Amino acid sequence: MISFPLLGIFVAVTFALWKEGLWGAAIMLLNTLLAATLATAWYEWVVALLKPRLPSYDYLLDFAVLWGLFSLLLLVFREIADRMTRTKVRFRRPVEMFGAPVVAAIAAWVTVCFTAASLHTAAVPRDLVQPTPETTMFFGLEPDRRWLEWVRGSTLRGPFAVAGRAFDPDADFILRYATRRHKLEAQRELRVPK
Prior knowledge:
Blueprint: H1 3-50, H2 58-84, H3 93-119, H4 126-129, H5 143-156, H6 173-186
Helix pairs in contact: 1-2, 1-3, 3-5
C-alpha cells in the first residue's frame, strides 16, 4: 500500500528536477543527500533534548523532528547553493538530455529512501508501514533499508562519523520502531469507541 505513494513521490520529484536541467538537478541532489543524511543522523539527539519538555508528544516527536530538521537543512543548503552558484553551468545538448533525467531520478531515489525510512517513525498503525518488520517496501527495492544502511555507514566510518556517536549502531531501527508503533496501537486511551 505504501509503494504507490512512494512511486508518486519518485515520479513527481524526477519530473520537477528534470525540468530544472542537469545543473539544477545536480545541486538539488547534493542538497537533498546532505540534508536528509544530517537530519537522520541528528534527529534522535534533538528528540532526546525535547522529550523531557514535551512528554505528551512522545510518539509524534521523532517524525516531526526528523522532517523538521530535513526541511530546515534543505532550505538552508538550497539558499547557500543559490548564493554560491549564481551562474548556471551549461552543458552540451546530448549531455543535458541524458544527464538531467538520470540525475533527477537519483535525487528522487534519495528522496524516496529518506521518506520510506521516516515512515517507520510515524505514529501510525504498525501494519500501515509494513505488515511485519521483515516485509520489504517499494516493490521489494527496500529504500528504507538502503537509507538506514547509508546513514549507519556514513556515521560509523564515513564522512559524517563523529567519535562515539553513530546512528543505529545495532541495526535495529526497523524492529525498534515496529515495536514502538505496536505499543502505541495497544494503548486503550487512544482507541475510538465504535
